[in-house]
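Internal tracking record. Fields below are filled automatically when a chain is submitted to the structure queue. Please do not edit lines marked as system-generated. If the sequence contains nonstandard residues, flag them in the REMARKS field before resubmitting.
Queue: standard
Priority: normal
Entity type: single polypeptide chain
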Amino acid sequence: MPPTSGPLRCNFKAVTNEAVDSLAVDLVPIVAGANTNIALLRWDWNGDGTIDAEDFALSPYAASYEAGHYSPSLFVSNTVGEVVTLKKPDYIRVFPSAVFVATNGASIFPFNSWSKATRNLQEAVVAVADGGMVTLSNGTFVISNTPPVVLAKGIEVRSLNGPRATILRGGRRIELVNPNAALRGVTITASRGIQMSAGVVADCIITNCASHLNISVAPTIGNYRVPGGGGGLISGGLIERCIIASNTTYNTANGDAHGGGLYMTGGTASNCLILANLAYTAAGYSGKSQGGGVCLAGPGRLVNCTIARNEVKASNALGSYGGGVYRSNAQSLLQNTIVWFNRGTNTIEDIYTTVSETNMTYSCSPSLTHNPAGTGNITNNPLFVVIGEGFGLTNRYTDGHLSAESPCRNAGSPDPELAATLDLDGRPRVSGGRVDMGCYEIPPQKGTFILIR
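SYSTEM-GENERATED OUTPUT FOLLOWS
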C-alpha cells in the first residue's frame, strides 16, 4: 500500500537494538496513511504498560536501557480521529556481560547480580552477552537433558571456588563449539560428560559419567547415540589440568565401545590425570572395547598426561585392546605422557597402536620401545607415590604424583613451550631444569641453606 493512502499506520526503529550492559538510543517514529497530521504520540519505551512520554509531532524519543529485554510500544492518533498502536516484543535486547547462577537464586531476569541469580545454567548461557562470563556459586546443580547446555558463544563459565565446591550433575553432554568458549573449575558427574569441537575446558573433574551405545536401554543418561567417550568426546579445542576418572563407555549391542575416559578425533589433552576409566562390551555381544583411558581415532594430542588404572573389557577379546590408550591414527601424538598400570582383556596392556610409534616421544610406558634415538621414551616403572590397586571402576587409592626417585623426573621434552604451562596442581611445570613426564611436576626438594658472612 502506498505510504500516502489507506488507514493510519505506524512503526518505529532504532539505529541499533542490541548492546551489552546498557543502551542509549533514539526511537524514531514513522507514520503512513491518507492522513498523517499527528494529534498525539505516546511512548511506552519498555513495554510495562506505563506511558513514559507524550508528543504532538514525529520527534524521536531518547530511551535508555539497562541489561534486559524490552518490548517498546507506540500509540499514534491523527486529526481525523484514527488511532493505531504498535508493540515490538523483545525489540530491545541488552545482554549482561556478567550472569550469576546460584542454588538458591531468585531467578530474576537478566540474572546480572547474585540477588537476581538464576538456578538454571542453560538460562544463564542464553542470557549472557557474547564475550561475557557466567559465575556459579557453590553447590550441586542438576542439569536436565532438554535443552542441552551448549556454549555456542564466546563465553566463560566458571565456579567461584573450584570443582570440589561446584558440581554439575546429570543431563546430556555439555558442549563447547565456539573457539572462545571456556568451562573452568567445575565437577561434571552422572551425565554424558563433555563434547567439544573448540574452546577450553580447564581445572575440572569429570567423573562417573557414561556413554551408552545402545540408546534404547539408557533413558537415565540421555537418549542419543555417540561413538564413545565416557568422560569426553573431543574433536577440537583444549582440555587442560583436568581429572578424568571413573567414567565408562559401554555397549549392550553389537557395536563397539571406544574411549572410557576420552574419545579423541582431534584436540589436545594437557596436564590431565586420566584414571580408572572403563571401555566395556557386555557378555554375549560381538562388539569390541578399545581404549579404556583414551581412544585416539584421529589427530588428537596427549601432552603431559598421566594415564593409569584404566581397563577394557569384552567377551570378544579379538580386537579389544588398549587398556590405557588405543591409537589408530598416525597423526595422533603422545608427548611427555605416562601410560602405566592399565589392563587390556585379561592382561596388562597400556598402549595398543595400529600405526607406527611415530609421534610418541618423551613418554613412559612398557608398551613403548625403550629410548630409541631421538624420542626420549622410557619403559621404566614411573614410581608413583601411591600405586593403588584394581583397574577401571574397581581402582582404589592410585595417586599419580611421582616420587623423588622417579625416572620420569626431568625426563620430559626440552620444548620451551611445555615449560610455560602449569601442572595439574597448578605449579610451574619446570622445577628441576627440565619438565617431568606426566601431569604432576615434582616440587623442589627442601634443603639446607648455609649463609656465611
